[in-house]
Specification:
Layout (H helix, E strand, L loop, with lengths): L7 H6 L7 E9 L6 E13 L2 E7 L5 E4 L2 E5 L1
Antiparallel strand pairs: 1-2, 1-5, 2-3, 3-4
């Protein structure tokens, strides 16, 4: 599966709303073995100082803040 994250400009053009949930794809780095996988899930948008981040729950059930995402569905 090809992963090309949206740029910050693209995210702004999507009119991302702070606190809203979006279906996203993001690169996850495993805590234990460092393996990188592409995960899909629901992320809550966080707008801070003009940047857009997403809060997601990783496969281990831990909250993670990610910036490199691909928005699948708004």
């Amino acid at each position: 599966m090809a992963f090309t994250p949206n740029t910050q400009a693209e995210l702004h053009n999507l009119n991302i709303v702070d606190g809203q949930q979006y279906e996203i794809r993001y690169k996850n780095k495993d805590y234990y073995n460092g393996e990188e996988t592409i995960e899909e899930g629901v992320g809550t948008a966080i707008l801070n100082n003009g940047n857009i981040y997403f809060n997601v729950v990783d496969p281990y059930g831990m909250d993670k803040l990610v910036m490199q995402v691909q928005v699948i569905q708004r």
